[in-house]
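Hi R.,

Here's the chain you asked about this morning:
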Amino acid sequence: MADYKNITLEKGMYGVKGKTFSQVLEELDPTENYRGTPLGKIDAFSRQLKRFDIKVSGKGSDKIEKFFSTTASAALFPEYVSRAVNQGIEAEDVLPDIVATTTMIEGLDYRSITSTPTDDEKSLKVVAEGASIPQTYIRTQDSLVKLNKHGRMLVSSYEAIRYQRIDLFSVTLRQIGAYIARAQLKDAVDVLINGDGNSNPADKFSVKTSGSVTYSDLISLWAKLSPYSLNAILAPTEGMQKLLAMDEMKDASAGLNFHGTGSLVTPLGAKLVHIPGIDIDSYIGLDKTCALEMVKSGEVQTEYDKLIDRQLERASITSIAGFAKIFNAASAVMQY
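And here is the predicted structure, written out as tokens:
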């Protein structure tokens, strides 16, 4: 069995190309080696926290200064920051409900692929013996995917936070993660509506009666996506209110579910996704299985040199990501 207490920790572990600190640590101390033991229920990073007796949550949470008690334990702090930020992203993130696939890249240049089949190409015809098989063309996009960097700069003296509990500091870090998730959602909505720079804005149409939304309008949105499936509808707060006020959305059992669990009604079987803080007067309908690709240049990045060597005087937390359309016709915008 590997001895996690003898692993040499250093800040250079953050600089391994294509790998996170946790992945490097897992290679040095595989969890597989602890199968059947209590240590096998936690990952390599958590074993290092146990090694230095650092409690990051709960009533007995340690103070920030516990990380900096040794040079080795200080190397764990940037990963703790990244994990806390990721917790905030995951708690706020609705992108899994609208993104078909996520592509990880190294660097900042990436061209996605697309296919724009005609109505004739969307149907599979009978191929006679000896006849040519119909073709579907897939090509790379002309323009690169635009990647945006989102993040926050933490500015504080070590003395100002050294006696604060780690779990209290985690609250701030999780909020930073929530900010990043909201910013990325805004980027995704912009691409769905205006396109990704490859002359592919969404097909737009208006409701029959301006300012109001009827069930008939939702049927039109459903029909607009055919033959793709309408399985997700993005709505701003005002649009959400209009939908929930519709008579068809006031079904007794649906209302009881909303009151009891907070789960939103799903019009036409599509998942209703609330996009608060995004100023649009439209609903976005899409087939989440093939409409949007998320492109990420690495995971959440924490400027570890400043955290370890300068003891958190300035620390940046950033995430770089962008979005590309896969099948443009798999999304549509209904303006009210």
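One quick note: Residues 63 and 166 are 5 Å apart (CA to CA).

Cheers,
M.
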